[in-house]
Amino acid sequence: PGEVILEVGQEEVASPDDVVKKFAALKAGGQKRALVLISSAEGEMRFVTLSTE
């Protein structure tokens, strides 16, 4: 596998559906961006900021 999303908005996500639901909830709450924790195939972790649009 490639990169895996571990957290959205500092809350753990376990599936692609969780990611979609979390982005929708953040957008509905007026958030324009989400902090996302990503793990690479090598185990390296990094944070990125993504638009909720």
**Helical residue percent band:** 10-25%
Through-space gap between termini: 26 Å
What is the approximate shape? globular
Low-confidence stretches: none
Q: Kindly state the mean pLDDT as a whole number?
A: 96
Which percent band covers the strand fraction?
Answer: 35-45%
Instruction: Provide the succession of SSEs.
Output: EEHEE
Count of separate DSSP helical elements: 1
Question: How are the SSEs placed, and which strands pair?
Answer:
Blueprint: E1 4-8, E2 11-12, H1 16-28, E3 33-39, E4 45-51
Antiparallel strand pairs: 1-2, 1-3, 3-4
List keywords for this structure.
globular; 1 helix; 53 residues; alpha+beta
Task: Provide structural commentary.
The chain contains one helix and four strands; from the N terminus they run E-E-H-E-E. The protein has 53 residues and is of the alpha+beta class. The mean pLDDT is 96. Helix content is 25%, strand content 40%. The longest helix has 13 residues, at 16-28. The protein has a four-stranded antiparallel sheet with strand order 2-1-3-4, covered by helices on one side. It has one helix at 16-28, and strands spanning 4-8, 11-12, 33-39, 45-51. The protein has one domain (4-51).
